Amino acid sequence: MSNRLIIIGAVLVAALYVLFSSVYVVNEREQAIVMRFGQITDVRSEPGLYFKIPTDIVDSVQVIEDRLLRQDIADMTVQVSGGAFYEVDAFLTYRITDPVLFRQRALGQLSVAQDRIATRFDAALRQVYGLREFNAALSEQRSQMMAEARDLIRPEMAGLGIEIVDVRILRTDLAEEVSERTYERMRAERLAEAALLRARGQEQAQSLRAIADRQAVEIVAAATRDAEIIRGTGDAERNRIFAAAYGQDAEFFEFYRSMESYRTALTGTGTTMVLSPDSAFFRYFGSDGEIPAASTNPARPIQPLAAPITAPNPDEPALDGLGIEETVAPSITLDDGSELSPTVGTEVPAAIEEAPAQ
What we know:
CATH class of the domain at 69-174: Alpha Beta
Strand content: 15-25%
Subcellular location: Membrane
CATH topology of the domain at 69-174: Tetrahydropterin Synthase, Chain A
Region (Disordered): 332-358
Family: Belongs to the band 7/mec-2 family. HflC subfamily.
Domain Band: 21-186
Protein name: Protease modulator HflC
Number of strands: 10
Largest sheet: 3 strands, antiparallel
Shape: rod-shaped
Structural class: alpha+beta
Distance between the termini: 182 Å
């Protein structure tokens, strides 16, 4: 009985071994190569359940990736045309499209294919960067550089049954020593530009200051001119009034001037004068306080001697000839609330006509 159970168990184990060794599964991420005595007999690229001759002695199955795979390169130093160096991070994506060729050329091992891809990828990037100038990798030529690197790798990888789908450059940075030199050069350029702008500003400031100083001198000169004209006009008007007064009554004018002389000469000076009572200075001392009679033939007032002062023409060009308008002098508010404005366009008041004596 025990021998019989042993035989039945052995048969069951053998049956299970034959069953499981004749079945293999291919999922959607894989593809399988079926080999009989080392020779490829079939390729399964569709997912599903498949059968083969039991045991691996006759038929064997090798599973190969059918996914999109990625190969990375990090911190790679490349030299561009001109001698500058970049540090580059890049990657490429690939897929095994011919399992038979992949088995024959790379033994179906991803490690072998990855070593070949890394070597070719490195050489392609160095070649692409070496054909360009310093700023090309940082410009719109970057997409063209990635396409060129992909096209350089594809022919050799196609011989392994691998298709290069895409090449991407993740980072392109200057090497540390190159970055420092570039920073110093940019800093020097910015300092030179700042110095140029500062010099231009100082030049414009000096020009505007000179224009303002000249305008100030011209304004002061014009104000002084107006003041002298008005002062002269006032003196002329005063003289005219005195002359008119003298012409109207010469005797009264002489009496008034004598009284002014007495006030000026004899008031609080402490001066002792010895004069004859009959001198012309004491002419009116013996008049007993009588005022001279008014003249019966007054003279007509004398007309103003000075012409009115007119304001300058506003349509004339600016003082400096550079389009800067003439400065307007500010008005001054006095303590009593009145405003003192610049004297521009002041006219001399007309003389008062006196009615002839009846």
